[in-house]
Amino acid sequence: MFGLSALELARIQFGFTVSFHIIFPAITIGLASYLAVLEGLWLWRKDTVYRSLYHFWSGIFAVNFAMGVVSGLVMAYQFGTNWSYFSAFAGGVTGPLLTYEVLTAFFLEAGFLGVALFGWNKVGPALHFFATLMVAAGTLVSTTWILASNSWMHTPQGFEIVGGKVVPVDWLAVIFNPSFPYRLAHMTVAAYLATALLVGASGAWHLLKGHDNARVRTMLSMAMWMLLLVTPVQLELGDAHGLNTLKYEPAKIAAIEGHWQNVPGQSVPLILFGWPDMTAETTRYALEVPVLGSLILTHDWNGHIPGLKEFPPDDRPDSTVIFWTFRLMVGLGMLMLLLGVSSAWLRLRGRLFQSPLFLRFAVLMGPAGLVAILAGWITTEMGRQPWVVYGVMRTRDAVSNHSALELTTTLIVFVVMYFAVFGTGITYMLKLIGKGPLDDTPHEPGGDALYGTPLNRRPSRPLSAAPDGIDPAIDTSKGV
Amino acid sequence: MGIDLPIIWAVIIAFVLMMYVVMDGFDLGIGILFPFVRDRGDRDTMVNTVAPVWDGNETWLVLGGASLMATFPLAYSVLLSALYLPLILMLAGLIWRGVSFEFRFKADEAHRPFWDKAFASGSYIATISQGICLGAFINGFEVKGPSYMGGALDWLTPFSLFTGLGLVVAYALLGSTWLIMKTEGALQRRMIALARPATLVLLAIIGIVSLWTPLAHPEVAARWFALPNLLFFAPVPLLVLATSWLILRVLKHETHAAPFLLALVLLFLGYSGLAISLWPNIIPPGVSLREAAAPPESMGFTLVGALFVIPIILAYSSWSYYVFRGKVRAGEGYH
């Protein structure tokens, strides 16, 4: 397809399926903690606004969690179907970490998720709150396992190679590899910010539509506090992650910054914009700020970062792509900061819920967190290339022996199905959000917003019990 | 050391896969039976019988995949890349039907037939793909070192297509007997009428596979027909016959749990027969469990978590089935 090699198609396929997948866990992580905060506030303040918001967002959480499970099913198999040499070589390390992630998720689903979603009137408030907290903790534990596995691929340690296979010799070293704490913190906070942006955009949208009530206001207000306080933390974490990457994966930093040749002892400029050209080994149309590169990347006026020419052409990541995905991520981060700061300014002037310009900005920023997460992951994963396990195994040695034809066929299946299935799911979630937490009626036993989700253990299935009449379909007139 | 990790893990993975086949088997069977039931209300009842449990059933498939990677990475990589196309089709089918399952409840009148068709077609695609993978697995794979040496379409043989069809019948039997247990009235009578031919056809299919396999694979024939193995293994085919006869018999009188439980026994026997044929190979015909095993450090580390969580999942699943025991009546959801 389009003259792409089997390796490129395999990478596109993995990138496509994992990009779709990551959206759902990111929102799951953020919403789980948000729900815990809401329930805590409800128990503390006894304000029904928090209880209503809990029930409203737990319905969306349930649909989102189901989408995450379904799209995760594919991931559990793709390492074997598409990256069989990687799995045969490194499965001894990544397999157990992945299994622990799966076991954590099931442990969570088996116990606490059911109680959190359907037990509001069936167990006492303390037990219910405990279940919600456990769900939130469970999502963080799951994140920990999967990021330990991924970070090990960037900064592998704690293993030996015996008979052409990776043998773990020190699990603590494997798990707590050098890039793991930074990646875990950066991703968890990213999930929180992405969720805050989604919640904030929902509140802003309802306010713009004239659906003004205490619940909608609380939604927007909480999200904006989150952005104001946590975006600076995220910038700090991103900076620390960058220093870590410079130490362990210098070629990635060189490619992100579009630097080809730097002289030791001389300060390095920051290239704001430009077009890194991999064949000409230069960054065209570069717009530079002197010294700033050294300052940001090494926290030193004359700090040195390597240029791409210090690495053999075979070991260089694609600078053209990750130069821009990185700038997209950082740019969105700056916009988040702007949104947070402008919310604080409006709040001080008492106009947080009235400024149409600000509300429109908040709505537009709704997907920004997810886009930034995708851009960041593309940067770090493509920045690791040409390695699948940095310095240990090359991606081209990891891929299964499938033909371009096979990969094209399955890629088309994935693309068509993912857009149909997850497009429908996302549309459905947006419709639920669009309904809004508009009434403050007490919650019905069993969870009225939750019927029809796969997690519903006490579903009131027939449509007679589904008064909202939200049809999930985008357009199904074509039939199958 | 007294602990034989590869054997323990082989047993765990075999158990997880059997749990998957048994549990997702009957709810895939519901989708397979959809074309035989036209009435809207009956279809709703059918789906309602599995609504509270179906997603838990699929968790076994994810667990099977992940633990195979952790404990037999060679088998994971070779089998999954050899079965690339049918596995992708299976995943596509499972996702498609899972989502249709949920959305048919949410859809308005105009869109419901679409989701019904999607649910049925997804169930067929997933089941046929699984059956094809099973057949291809029995046929074996060409392996050299960590590499699958066969072609992209090696899985496509008359035998694997036959096992694909066979699994459709097996799941249809599980689905229909499940519904006999969970429903009453006209729908139950319809299911009894379907379960009878399904049993006979499945028996014929088991018979044909049992002849086809040893004929095509001399090592399988040697396993079964050499003395004294023949004496040890003879109960398996005899029990298959006895169980089938019992199913047909209870279908005439008993109209509750017995047909379903007997169908489970039948499936378990078929599973055991396969295990006898293929043991101790994890990539037939030439790679054994031990050759494909991960380092003990990986197996031991993963075992700790598995032994902790699998019993909890089992307890929770049992509780879930217990809560939703009993008949489901038309127009009645779970509360």
Main features:
heterodimer; A: 480 residues; mainly alpha; two-stranded antiparallel sheet; 65% helix; 6% strand; globular; B: 335 residues; two-stranded antiparallel ribbon; 3% strand
What do these coordinates show?
The complex is a heterodimer of chains A (about 475) and B (about 325). Chain A is mostly helical and about 475 residues long. Chain A has helices spanning about 5-45, 50-80, 85-120, 125-155, 170-175, 180-210, 215-250, 250-255, 290-300, 320-350, 355-365, 370-385, 405-435, and strands at about 160, 165-170, 270-275, 280-290, 385-390, 395. In chain A, the strands form three sheets. Chain A has a two-stranded antiparallel ribbon with strand order 1-2. In chain A, strands 3-4 form a two-stranded antiparallel ribbon. In chain A, strands 5-6 form a two-stranded antiparallel sheet. In chain A, strand 5 and strand 6 form a beta hairpin. In chain A, helix 1 packs antiparallel against helix 2 and helix 8 packs across helix 10 (about 320-350). The longest helix of chain A is centred in the N-terminal third of the chain and has 40 residues, at about 5-45. The radius of gyration of chain A is 24 Å and the shape is globular. Mean pLDDT of chain A is about 85; it is low at about 440-470 and about 475-480. With about 325 residues, chain B is mainly alpha-helical. Chain B is about 80% helix and about 5% strand. Chain B contains 14 helices and four strands. Chain B has a two-stranded antiparallel ribbon with strand order 1-2. In chain B, strands 3-4 form a two-stranded antiparallel ribbon. In chain B, a hairpin with a 3-residue loop joins strand 3 (about 280-285) and strand 4. In chain B, helix 1 runs antiparallel to helix 3 (about 55-70) and helix 5 (about 85-105) runs antiparallel to helix 6 (about 110-140). Chain B is globular and about 55 Å long. Chain B starts with a helix and ends in a 12-residue tail after the last helix. At the A-B interface, helix 2, helix 3, strand 2 and helix 13 of A face helix 2, helix 3, helix 4, helix 5 and helix 6 of B.
